[in-house]
Specification:
The complex is a heterodimer of chains A (257) and B (127).
Chain A lengths: L3 H4 L2 H9 L2 H22 L7 H25 L9 H27 L3 H8 L1 H5 L2 H19 L4 H8 L2 H25 L10 H25 L8 H25 L2
Chain B lengths: L7 H27 L7 E5 L3 E2 L4 E9 L5 E11 L6 E10 L4 E8 L7 E10 L2
Antiparallel strand pairs in B: 1-3, 2-3, 3-6, 4-5, 4-7
The chains are: A mainly alpha (257), B alpha+beta (127).
Chain lengths: 257, 127
Amino acid sequence: MFSLPLLYTREVWWAGFIAHPYRLLGYVLATFVLLLGYNRYAGLRRDSTTIEVAIDSIEEMGLGIILGGLVLFLLGRFTFDMALMEIIGIVVVGAMTVAIGVSIGTAQLGASGKEDEGLGRTSAKNEINFAAQLVFALCGAFLFAANIAPTEEVVVIAIALSWAKLMGLAIFSLLIAFLILHYSDFKGASDFVRADHPVIILLGTIVTYAVALGSSALVLWFFGRFEGVALYTALAQTVVLGVPATLGASAGRLLLQ
Amino acid sequence: MKKTKKNWLEWVVFALGLILVSVTLGYLIYAGATMGHEAPSIEVRLGTPERRQFNFLVPVTVINHGDETAEGVRIEVVIDNGGASKERAELDVAFLPRHATREGWVTFEQDPGAAQLKARVLGYQRP
């Protein structure tokens, strides 16, 4: 649901066979760590042990590979007479975001109701600490960034934009982060996010944006967008992608729990 | 789904997931370890010309033996019948991944049958 657009994007298929196997490996491992983190704090069961978290993560990885592979095959993106490395590459790139999508989907849709309210509200909620917030923000940012990063448009925008507009985008991102997190004050969505002190709100906003920029840069690097460009262009791309990533990060902190 | 104990379906999914994930990781490590850094090295193979209603079709098979992916591969096929009335055709391959094979056709107006066909790769870029 969250990751289907990615499977319908040409650049994603290309990334599968352009990227070096080790880069793909890094992508898989990064996704796995993200899944571990996400499942630790918001997985299928809130009272999970470490082993259960690991089992869940592997389950979701497997589902991601199966579902991603199936959809890509039905879309005619690979045939079995292609080189094995090519097939694996195409499937892996698609499957990883599907795995995160599956993870978020099951946590959101599967475990609704009393579990969320019951266990979540009391002691467990207090343990949702800074690390958990960071993981949620990362998941959201990664999901949003990964859907947009592979497209050519990010580079096109980054090259064309003036310095002032880039600054504008950065400020706009910070504003998004601030508004979404601040809006949650009224909803009382989370005990952590509801900050009474302006310094904490400011800090939360900046941390959210930092997470968004970090994941943007990582995803852009994975899709080979930093190769052979000047530092300024790389930075510009990160800022351009930072807008949707910020949206993902701040929404993630609120919605994904 | 909400029970603390897993049911058999979840275990099956887990087992499948474990196999798929470890196979994928294993293969990626293996591929990364055995893969060199050889630039794309592209071989062009020509099939037997076939007569069609409007022209002559020559099947082309393009194989990348290198360890890197080539983008925008341009291939030229020339009928070489001793200098007179040469005809040339071109074929572009958008992406030719490492160790991958792509197939296509070039067309000619004159019968290439008797003459000699020559094919070569004009150029390609790093993606």
